[in-house]
Specification:
single chain; 73 residues; mainly alpha; 73% helix; 0% strand; elongated; Homeodomain-like domain-containing protein
């Protein structure tokens, strides 16, 4: 089983401690995957609007969340 499959199964647990921990882990995994795919799209020349459309969010939201230029990191 993959990590995501294992976590998805655990998220359905009747034990709230197990289920909530799995939800947290899935949320963190999703954030990492989104960042990777947004970076991939930008490297391939996608506009912020095209990315926003694919994620069904506003251009401003995706740009604010993922724009690395100008950040002190």
């Amino acid at each position: 089983m993959t990590e995501a499959t294992t976590l998805a199964a655990a998220a359905g647990s009747p034990d709230p401690k197990v289920g909530l921990r799995a939800v947290l882990a899935l949320r963190r995994l999703l954030e990492r995957l989104e960042a990777i795919q947004v970076a991939n799209a930008r490297e391939q020349g996608w506009s912020w609007q095209a990315i926003a459309d694919a994620l069904e969010v506003s251009k401003q939201a995706v740009h604010q969340k993922h724009n690395r230029r100008g950040r002190n990191r």
